[in-house]
Structure formats: structure tokens, C-alpha cells
Amino acid sequence: MHISSLPGDDGIGGMGKDAFQFIDFLAKSKQKIWQILPLGPVGYGNSPYLSYSAFAGNPVFIDIQQLVSDRLILKSAVINQHFKTKKVEFEKVEEWKTILFREAFEAFQKNFQRFKDEYDTFMSLHSWWVDDYALFRSLKTKNNNTVWNTWDRDLVIRDKQALHETTKELHEEIDYHRFLQFIFFRQWFKLKAYANSKGVRIIGDIPLYVSLDSADVWANQDIFQLDADAKPILVGGVPPDYFSETGQLWGNPVFDWERVAARDFDWWLARIQFNLRMFDQVRVDHFRGLESFWAVAAEAKTAIVGEWLPAKGHELFLKLKEIFGNLHIIAEDLGVITPEVEKLRDDFGLPGMKILQFAFGSDSENTNLPHNYDSNFVVYTGTHDNDTALGWFNSIEKPERKMLRRYLRGNGKELVRQMIEYVWSSSAMTAIIPMQDVLGLDSDARMNTPGTATGNWDWRFSWPQIRSNHTIFIKEITKRYNR
């Protein structure tokens, strides 16, 4: 469950009391893991997989009440906005929070000495990415939020003199974005420390690709396949699959792996290291793209026509192994997986993923059926890209339903519970269920429908939806199956 799906008065889930309360619910239910989606700042469509930065946190998750406690905004300034409770109203929330963040920044500047040591420590650890990110966001504001490759040429090519002059000109706005990141990570590590103290580990998520419109591509243009005008030559996606007949065209620029290697994988190593500090474990989304990736011409309208090009995941993981020893990484190995991708995963002992919703579309040899896989996997009833278990069951055709009946009985919420128990009883080292399946919710609670640009990512739950029987059930099966 993503942080945005938490209840609360801020119109979106955040890093406040409801997050701490959710951790208490997990601990009470004897759960040891909370898996979330990427935490970066997002643009159009609100997808956490299309972020302005691979490192920055999304300020929209900053808890307003903690800013009140820190005496950065007055309690009287926080007026109830009467947001919807079941859906996130992203634009409305962002507008309201931005006003409060500007007030908090003003107070921060006036009372800087109170935070100086902490802020200086933060900047000494993070300036290597914060400075580029803060300048990038400030320039986006100055340029009416347009994509960076349409800015003045000297800024596109990052002419040193132009960057120096712009940094001086926009210093106030740059400091504002640095401040937001300082507050975000201050609150994040407080929340993570609380989770860990309760025996709950947090699994983060690393998208394989980064958005073209990001500080990362702007500051590292040489490691992406861009033309002389800084426009993508090839973009990422996947060919036609379970989710889409025309494939998925993501539009992200693809990596120039020769150049990535020539730079000794520095950007990738920094990214993984950063995430393994932020989280206890990370899932690498679209892991197969580290072995070979589907490259589509930038002007294409669908992902049907493309080609598989080689990546340098093996060399990257060798370097990661040197640095970290054990790699706390989960390989999202769903979709069209080749023996070469499986070998890359297995050579480094990375757990793959199994999805129970995919288990009933063929026969008893289906690789997603628990009796067909070994223990080095993370098994899910479904992920953020699937319908809820109940929504899926209500939509499947007769042959799939017949296959399901060979293993499970029941209907509705009763069947969802059986699916959860089936996952819990498997030999997989880790079992994870979406919060929607804990609550037995239907398709209205779906988080994301791949291939659609709008209407996603906005689901939230409310505390009255969690009943004592939810806690009892999860606690009971966790004990029964020795999880």
C-alpha cells in the first residue's frame, strides 16, 4: 500500500500520525513488512513511476501537523479543506499544501539557527543531488513548467556560466526546494525508525527508467540515448503482453549502457545505495530491462514495433555485490522472461515475484501456482498494477474460473481470504498482499490500470474499514504458516 492511500485530514496519506497508526496495525497483526511505491515528486498523471527525480521525496507527503509542532506554521493557518476521504484530489491537495509550505519556509529562514546543524548535516550528505534537483525545479517554475529540453540552449547544454548566473538569480527558489527536501527526509527517517522499532521493515520501489522531464536526465544527459537537441532517440516500454494488446509505451528515454559502464556505473550505484539507505529492501521494477530492454522509436504511437537491446545488469550487480555483499533487492521479473533474465536474477540470489492472479490462466504447470516455485520468491495475490482480488474474480472468464475451482472454493470476500491464505501457506520466503485485499474490496479500489493515463493512484482507505476480524485473520494465518 502506498503512503498516499493512508487516511488523514491532509487530503492524501502522508508521514503523520496515520502512518504511525498503520505501523501499529501491522505490528498488532504480527506483520513484518510494509511495501510502498516510489516516493518521488510526480507530474501529470500523478504516476509515482514518472518522477522529476530518482532521489527527491514528494513534498505532498510532508505532514502538516509536524510543521505546526516544529513551529514553522501556525495552528490557526491550517484550515480544514474538506477533502474527499476515499480518493486523493491531487491538484487541490498540492495547491493547499504549497501555500503552507511557503509560510513554513519563511519561518524556517527567520529561525534558521534552530535547524542549522541538522540542515547543514543534511546538505553535506545530499547536496550532490539536491543542488541539481532544486535548480531544475526552480528553472521549471521560471519556464512555465515546460520540459527542460525546450529551455534556452545554454541551460539545456548546462553551460557552466549560465548555470552559475541562474543559480544566483534563483537562489531564493532553490533554497525553498532544498528546504522541502530537508523536511521530507527529516520526517521520512523518523517514520522509518518507528517502523523498524516495531519490527516492521519497509520495502521501497525503484523504477528502472526515469522520466525525460527529470533532474536526472537533465544533469546526466550522456548516459541516456538522446539526440543533438536532447530529445530521446529511443524510448522504453514492453511489447504486447497480459496487460495490453499494443504493449506499453512508457516514453522514458533508455540508457546508453556503454556510457553508463564508461562512467563506472556511478549514477546507478549512487541510486541503489541511496535507496538501500532509505528503505530496508527495494524492489527493482521491470528488472528484465537490466538484462535486455525493449527499445521503441521515440516517434512511435504504440510499443508493438521495437527491438530487444542488451543492457549491462551483470556488470552492475557485480559492482553492487562488491559494495554491499548481500543485496537486499527484489527482482520484479514479471512479463516476458527469458532464461537469460532468470540467470541474472539467480546468479546474484535475488528473489523474484509470483502473482496468484496469474496462476489460473492455463494448467497445473502454471509457474505462478505455489506448488511450482521454490522458496526464493516474493508471492502476491496481486500488485498495484492488478485489479483487486475481488475485482479480478468478478471479471474472469469461465475457463479461468474453472481452473481456480480446482484449488479454491467460495465467492466474494470468502474467496479473497482463501487466496490470501493460499499465498501465506506457500513455500515463498515472503508473502505480501495489497491492503485492498486485506479489506476485501472490489474494482473501485484498484490502484492502477496499466496503459491508462488518468484516473489512477488515488485510492485511499479509512480507519472504520479495518475491523478486528481483519487483524485476527492475518495474525492467525501468520502464526499457522510460520511466517
Computed over alpha carbons, the radius of gyration is 23 Å
Q: Helix tally?
A: 17
**Gap from first CA to last CA:** 19 Å
The strand line-up of the biggest sheet is: 1-2-5-8
Q: What multimeric state do the chains show?
A: single chain
Average pLDDT rating: 96
Strand content: 5-15%
Helix fraction, binned, reads 40-55%
Q: What class, by secondary structure content?
A: alpha/beta
Strand-and-helix sequence, N→C?
HEHHHHHHEHEEHHEEEHEHEEHHHEHH
Overall 3D geometry?
globular
Counting DSSP E segments of at least 2 residues, the number of strands comes to: 11
Uncertain stretches of 5 or more adjacent residues = none
For the sheet with most strands, the description reads: 4 strands, parallel
Plain-language structure description:
The protein is an alpha/beta fold. It has helices at 17-28, 64-69, 90-110, 112-142, 153-156, 160-169, 171-197, 215-219, 257-262, 266-278, 313-324, 339-347, 389-395, 398-405, 412-424, 435-438, 468-480, and strands at 33-35, 201-206, 234-238, 248-253, 281-284, 292-297, 307-310, 329-331, 352-355, 377-380, 430-432. The strands form three sheets. Strands 1-2-5-8 form a four-stranded parallel sheet, covered by helices on one side. Strands 4-3-6-7 form a four-stranded antiparallel sheet, with no helix packed on it. Helix 4 (112-142) crosses helix 7 (171-197). The protein is globular. It starts with 16 loop residues before the first helix and ends with a helix. The mean pLDDT is 96.
